[in-house]
Amino acid sequence: MNVSIILIILLFGALATYFAGDKLAKTVALVISLASFVASVAILNQHNAGISSDFIYKWISNPNIYLASKVDGLAIAMMLLTTALTTIIVWSSFANQFKNAKGFYALVLFMSFAMVGTFVSADAFLYYIFWELALIPIYFIALVWGNGDVEERKRAIVKFFIYTLAGSLFMLTAFIYLFSKAGSLLIDELYLLRLTEQEQFWIFGAFFLAYAIKIPIFPFHTWQANTYQLSPSVGTMLLSGIMLKMGLYSVIRWQLPLAPLAAKTYMNIFLVLSIIGVVYGSIVALKQHNLKKLLAYSSLAHVGLIAAGAYTLSLDGLRGAVLQMIAHGFVVVGLFFAAEIIERRLNTQEIAQMGGIRILDTKFASMFMIVMVASVGLPGTFNFIGEFSLLYSLYNVDIWYAVIGGTTIILGAVYMLKMFQNVMLGEANAKPFAAITLQESLVFVIIIAVLLFFGLYPKPINDLITPALQEIVAKINRV
Amino acid sequence: MEKNIALVLVLAPFFGFLFNVFFGKKAGKTLVGLVGTASVLVSFLSTLFFFSALNANPSQPVVVDLFQWISLEKFNVNFSFLLDQLSVLWLLFVTGIGTLIHLYSISYMHDDENMNKFFAYLNLFVFFMIMLVMGSNLVILFIGWEGVGLCSYLLIGFWYKNQDYNDAAKKAFIMNRIGDLGLLVGLFIVAYVFGSLDYKVISEGAYNTQLVSNNSGLIALAALCLFIGATGKSAQIPLYTWLPDAMAGPTPVSALIHAATMVTAGIFMVTRMHFLFDLAPQILDLIAIVGAATAVLAASIGLVQNDIKKVLAYSTVSQLGLMFLALGLGAYEIAVFHVITHAFFKACLFLGSGSVIHALHGEQDMRNMGGLRKVMPITFWTMMISTLAISGIFPLSGFWSKDEILLTAFHSNIPLWIVGSIASIMTAFYMFRLMYLTFFGEFRGTEEQKHHLHESPALITFPLIVLAILAAVGGLISLPGNSWLNHYLAPLFRKAHEAHHLDATAYALMAVATVGALIGIGIAYSKYIKKQEVPVQDAEMKGFASVLYHKYYVDEAYDVVVVTPLKKLSHFFRNYFEVAFSETVFAFGKIANAIGTQGKVLQNGSVGFYLLAFVIGMASILVYLFLV
Amino acid sequence: MENILQAIGIENYIFLSVMLFCIGAFGVLYRRNAIIMFMSIEIMLNAVNLLLVAFSTLHQDAEGQVFVFFSMAVAAAEVAVGLAILVSIFRNTGSIDIDNLKNLKG
């Protein structure tokens, strides 16, 4: 069995969902995403047993392009993250009534397909196709099923679409150049290239534009807040939970090993940008009136720290980055889900119109609370492990990076607690708040279980990703 | 066997927490209280087991290694526990006093609709506190450290309908987090220098002169960062302002978390890492100065507070300052000694004040109390013993511990001794002011309250009596000349600290301290008993008293220096930076748009024009091909 | 065959087809009636056909004439499509003046 099975499940699953009709669409989508998750677990088992799940087929003979996939522990981790989160996200939307549901869920699965494809591709051409393919479904999801004023939404979503697309074009240019040098786009052959520092600089820069917009790194983040706010929650979860991890993953998989000299030379610039993002995102989050926008800025701060860890080029940094990517994926889905639950009941995203929810629904309050403290990196939760490794790797570069990046633990507490206080605490609101349903609370329970389990016992993930990351560090450090 | 008991020790309160969260509502209040209390009692009994084991075999601390937790390139952090003299001692009073306070809460919180939540949080707190104390490395300590902060947040904001309480809770959490960042950076430095975060490895490294001399700057920095962490948790200058606000929580919380246990975490950590601090004498000096300054500053604010719990809160800050003074002087055992005696008498005082508040149905302003001595004799007498203890009256526990601190200060630095002594005199004054205003004179509350005055039930008075006895005799564990505590803690320290001998200086200082305390009591007596003064209303306060009453306007200053600028910055970023970045991106779109607008003139829709352009184009290509 | 070329030199054929082509081109550019433009295009096409035939004769190579057949067939198809379009334009707008067709204006 190789990883193509997951891609096939998701692609045909998307079609099946579309043809299942509006009524059955969400059930079919859930079954398909669950099947893809099970298949990912099977791939994981196969990997642990030492059997390779790679595949390679000739696709186009001139230019020399392959359908190739190489799955190491890192790719498997990301694949598991994607399929698990897709399942959770699909399930979390069960209470929503979408117009044309079959189209909606088909697009969700199609997006999952493209994202898994991005994580497992071992040929730059294929990778690029998947990378861009992932943009199309989210464009429609956000545009057609989004909320808020249509004109405003169009403006924000089109901006997001063109912005990311434009960034990716630079990456394409870099790949074309690399192809002209290597005669192939297989990642292993690209790794073998010996580029001059000048060449590496341009390639690194081209990659950086694509990834910095996707992640996003300050100051390329301006699409984020509005897109998150105006997308339907499912779209926001897909974007923040998985899609921005594509950028971070690509930094680790493509950018750093292909241009290690440039990475080392200009490390400080990228560290500074990432860390500015941490502080800036936190400070802007302090004064947000819209719950989803606030969470968007908190996401900016968190991924800034992850990117900073990756750019330290150390094993600790990379490992922390990957751990935090996974942890952040779950936590941010949990947070946006909480926002969605509130929106379902109160029909608003404005924090000022909330308050006193804890009195009306203590169960929801407790679960929201746990996810929130996980997001501020309380020890014992998964996020702490990542944050600890990241900050430690930053410390090893320079103590000030750790101190300034570490302000996230203070500022994160400030805006999160403030948000929680205004949304959940205080006197009861006049508006009714229906108690959280069993299905909604089960979604939370799964997310919380993941966060707490890996917070105490991250070893399985650690053992999975470490060999792959060691290889990447070795490639970065080759002279 | 030992591993299992250690697990029981840690997990019992956690199971109490789980029970109260999931079954608390159904189980009923009696069962909630019972399970909550019993789970802590189980921990206490397990601690007794380790205590006796350690006494039998002092050189063999128990290490329980569970599993590998965080892996880093150079070292791993394991989930493991260490039960040596220090942690067992701490566990004894954490779980012991914890049990008493849980018992007390059964009655105190009985009428609260969320009693199960309260016990759940309290159990969770004990669990995290045990983690903090029992961890065998700094990261486990950090779990507990942040965990108790979370519980403190939850309990301060326990009455979450009141946004003022929520503000206080938030403030406590955030100020703690400022310290936590310091602690975290300290951890990183320690890890970098010693290649591990395990206490054992660090202590071995700290005695490696080669390693130490190569990294002396970093070690001092590490000590400074760890101390910043301690200032947050243990409410020292400049991060002390959260503690008085934390009194918004229910009184048992103030007794357990904000007096007896959590706030001593900083002292625990410094004592734990003493080998590191010993290498950084300049940081030790700083600790001593900060401690002394906090002691006198907080005591001075305590002089004029009218809220009974606020007085006790400032007293706690001040006493913690004295403990840091002792730490700064390198007298770790003495600091530990004062932690223990303080835990006894301060817990008793808080619980006593809770008993008073309970009797008055939530009244906390001492201006509306008075004359409670006859109605509440048990509360009065237990609080009186504790007040005498905290004031340092012979032969109660506070006398011995405070005297040791002042004696040490006298031997090393006279100005610090003077500051410490002033703080103790103030302590005696404000504590007796509290007692006189609350228990003596005539009752000043409403008729309604007077009608309902009563002594609290046995569940409340029993812990008070136990704690009062401990506050009275607690000094026995470390009498000068023959200190059991020093002897017990000796295996921790490489160089043994001998208890002070009872020489002439010691006696003279004892006399001075006692006279000082008596002076403080005397002033309080003449003001509040003889002249029957009652503190004036807030608006009438003037001069320095007003400055004191407003806590030197430190909160306001923080507001102006930190909070407001941060808000402004956030505003500025949101309204200008965000817009600027956004517009920059749109500018690219606009450039493309402008080119398009110009270009669309060519696309005028006239077929003839297109044909002309086509022919001209073809012709020019032909001309180019044939003629050029 | 050769005698035809001997009788009238190849230059004359070239000259004639250039003339025809230019007439066609100017017709396309000047006239606004779509049918006349269409006819002009046909003239241009036939000018090229003529040239192809002439050169085919000159080089004694039948390929050129084959091409002419091709282009005539294409022209016939084009006329069918083009006239159909014109008819539908006429039905919609009531005229076949191409100046009225400005829907593509940017």
Description:
The complex is a heterotrimer of chains A (479), B (628) and C (106). Chain A has 2 domains: 1-257, no CATH class; 266-479, no CATH class. In chain A, 78% of the residues lie in helices and 2% in strands. Chain A is built from 20 helices and 2 strands. In chain A, helix 14 crosses helix 17. The radius of gyration of chain A is 21 Å and the shape is globular. Chain B has 628 residues and is mainly alpha-helical. Chain B has 3 domains: 1-206 and 221-255, no CATH class; 280-472 and 503-534, no CATH class; 559-627, no CATH class. The model of chain B has no long low-confidence stretch (mean pLDDT 88). Chain C has a single domain (2-98), classed as Helix Hairpins, CATH 1.10.287.3510. Chain C has helices at residues 2-7, 10-30, 34-59, 63-93. In chain C, helix 2 packs antiparallel against helix 3 (34-59). The relative contact order of chain C is 0.12. At the A-B interface, helix 6, helix 9, helix 12, helix 14 and helix 16 of A face strand 1, helix 6, helix 7 and helix 26 of B.
Summarize the model shown.
The complex is a heterotrimer of chains A (479), B (628) and C (106). Chain A has helices at residues 4-48, 73-92, 101-120, 124-133, 135-145, 150-182, 187-192, 197-214, 222-230, 233-258, 260-265, 267-286, 291-311, 315-346, 357-360, 362-375, 382-397, 399-424, 438-456, 459-477, and strands at 55-60, 65-69.
Topology:
The complex is a heterotrimer of chains A (479), B (628) and C (106).
Chain A: H1 4-48, E1 55-60, E2 65-69, H2 73-92, H3 101-120, H4 124-133, H5 135-145, H6 150-182, H7 187-192, H8 197-214, H9 222-230, H10 233-258, H11 260-265, H12 267-286, H13 291-311, H14 315-346, H15 357-360, H16 362-375, H17 382-397, H18 399-424, H19 438-456, H20 459-477
Antiparallel strand pairs in A: 1-2
Chain B: H1 2-22, H2 24-27, H3 29-56, E1 62-71, E2 76-83, H4 85-108, H5 115-134, H6 138-156, H7 163-194, H8 199-206, H9 209-214, H10 216-233, H11 242-245, H12 251-260, H13 265-272, H14 274-278, H15 281-302, H16 308-328, H17 332-359, H18 377-391, H19 397-412, H20 414-439, H21 447-452, H22 458-473, E3 478-479, E4 482-483, H23 484-489, H24 504-530, H25 543-549, H26 554-599, H27 607-627
Antiparallel strand pairs in B: 1-2, 3-4
Helix pairs in contact in B: 1-3, 1-5, 3-4, 3-5, 4-5, 4-12, 4-17, 4-22, 5-6, 6-7, 6-12, 7-10, 10-13, 10-15, 12-17, 13-17, 15-16, 15-20, 16-17, 16-19, 16-20, 17-18, 17-19, 17-22, 18-19, 18-20, 18-22, 19-20, 19-24, 20-24
Chain C: H1 2-7, H2 10-30, H3 34-59, H4 63-93
